[in-house]
Each structure stands twice: as structure tokens, then as C-alpha cells.
Design a protein that fits this description.
By secondary structure, the chain is of the alpha+beta class. Helices cover 24% and strands 35% of the residues. Strands 3-2-4-10-7-8 form a six-stranded antiparallel β-sheet, with no helix packed on it. The longest helix is centred in the first third of the chain and has 72 residues. The protein is elongated and about 110 Å long. The chain starts with a helix and ends with a strand.
Length: 294
Amino acid sequence: EEGSAGFFGIGSKKAVIKARKKVIVEDILKEEPAAKKEEKKEEKKEFKKEKKEFKKEKKEFKEIEDNIMEKLKYPRPQFIRENWTDLNGSWQFAFDDHDEGEVNQNYLNNDFYPMTIQVPYSYHTKNSGIGLNENHPIVWYKKDMKVDVKENKNYILHFGAVDYKCDLYINDTHIFSHQGGHTPFDVDITKYIQNEFALIIRVEDYNLCTQPIGKQSWKNSNFLCWYTRTVGIWQSVWMEEVGTTYLTNIRMTPQIDNATLDIDAFINTQDDDAWIKGEVYFEGEFITKFMSSF
């Protein structure tokens, strides 16, 4: 009996220990889901916070990217104006080997232009949509324009470069000539335009050695290190809407020694009542503002 009692006693102790272990495990199992639930809740909260911050950073990056792309799109990134029209793209186009465009104002007729060209590419290039490596010293461009012409506004036509000599017409009126294939120029066309008008350009380039031609071949074909010539519009064309008094140029010179900025601003007219005001930023951070009379 003692042996039996002793046996059952030991067995009972083992059973109690197992029961205690079971209770402890059950308590742990009860606590574990609650702890995991709280941990997951915190993780979810942290994830939402990171997601929100990521969306904010993505939005900021998109704004920066859009701003950069808009500046790159604008032909003159250092002098951006809000109201402008991109005139690159499709224009009517014609070769005029016999110089007949001005005879009886043939340049006004759409039939005079048998081709379409993609400005600002020379007709020699594939991107122009023509891609002919031929010598045509006189070419014409025509683009029909629709503009919402407003009172007390001026309209400035800009050319990045036209090689070599060009004449500009608004409808049948010759308004401007320019010579030099590598220099930009602009024309105030306000008094010549209405809501609809034809913008016409005659270009002449005989690629003579007496004019600056750079590395362009003066022969009918390329040779040695002289390459295919460029005739016509080969830089961007655009139009800007400005006020009756407007900036024509601005030059900024930082003075590092005394931490100042010298600004030379130029306007289109002698206007004693004109003022300029502006704000200075560095890497997006506001520095100061200024105002001055001309």
C-alpha cells in the first residue's frame, strides 16, 4: 500500500505540475494574441504614417519635376513668361529655286507650298519630315495663326535662329529682316496682327564662304570634316504676350564679397513712370525682395 500510495503520490505531483504548466501556457497564449494585435496595430499605424509621408514626398517631387520640365519646354528657361505660344511643329513649306515667291505675291497662296515641315528642323534632317540632302538656297515657311488679341497687350515673336538671311511677313506686309544664322532675334508684331493672320518667312542661304558658316560644307556634298549644311529655321519659334511696357532683358551679377546682387533691367520704352519689383530666391528659399524705378 505504501508503495501504491507512493506511486500515486508521485503521479499526482506530476499531474499538478502538468496542470500548472498548462495554465501558464494558456495564459501566455491568451496574452500573445493581444500583444501581437497591439504590435500589428502599431505597425499598421507606422505604415500609414510612412505611406502618408511617401505620398507627400511624391507630390513634392512631381511638382519639382513638372517645374523642371516646364522650364525645359520653354525655349528660354532664364526668361520665362506665363503667357506664351509654342510655334514649333507643322508649317507649310516650299523650295523657291527660281526666286518666284515674291512675284505677284505667290507666297500668299497655299498652293505655293507643296510640303509640310516640322519646325525647328532644317529640311535636310529626318526630323523635319522631309529629309532631303539637296541644295535649295531659298525656302519659304507659312503658318496660319489664330490669336486672342487683347487691348493693352503687346505680342513678341521670337526666333532662336534662322540660317542665314530671313524676311518676315504678316499677311502681305513685310515687317522685318534679319541676317545671321546663329543669333536669336525677336520682333514686336502687335500693330500688324488681328485675331487671324498668316505668318510667312522667306529664308535665303547660299552658304557662301563670305558669310559665317562654321563647319557647314560650302559644296554640294559633305567632304573631309565639313558636314551637311543647315538652311532655314533650326531653333525654336514662339510668341509671348506682354504688357505695353515690358522687360526686354535682365542681367544679374552676384557680388560675393558683400553678399549682394546687382540687377540691370531693360525695358522696351523710355517710361519714367515704370517700376520694377521682384523677389530673390536661392534653392527655393526666399531671400529678399526689391523695388526700383527706371
